[in-house]
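Input sequence (186 aa), recorded before submission:
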Amino acid sequence: MEISEERPQRGWAVAAAAPPEQWRGAVEAALPGTPAGAAWAHVASFFSAHHYLPGIDVCERVADGPGSEEEEDDDDGPQLIIPGCIRHVASRATGLWAREELLEADHAARRLRYAVVASNMGFGRYVATLRVLDGDLDVDGDGCRIAWAFECDAVQGEGWSEAALVARLGASVQGMAERVQRLVAR
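Predicted structure, token format:
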């Protein structure tokens, strides 16, 4: 015969926290007359965001990913551009900064995926995908598009809303497209 002793459990009851609100969105900008491959060469340059992303004037490598032979050259020499590497991007004008980890670099699909791992902008979880897409934007069919999609926890901070974030990214991708077109035209 089995005897069971039930004892009252001591401890604290923990209420389950509600999951944070999720935001998602996507924006894109056209680059008429710019071949996708030429635009991709700039967008894929993970440590060169300060050259093509408006408002960013600092973009520095702070950590390399686990071993790779894929490198990108800049003024400071070769820079590893493999998943796991981390960049620090900032705006001196606004004081805003973020550390971003490269999650995926798929050159065949012309796609970068990264996550914000630290920032002073109120982000919790934020994952973005940048893609360069072929597009029949002009008579010759040489144009392309830059697409920027994101998903994140609702941003904590005054003045933030999902619509405000989409509008900010929309302006950023438009500025990025203009800068990439100028860089390609050089």
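Checked by second reader. Confidence is low (pLDDT under 50) at residues 68-74.
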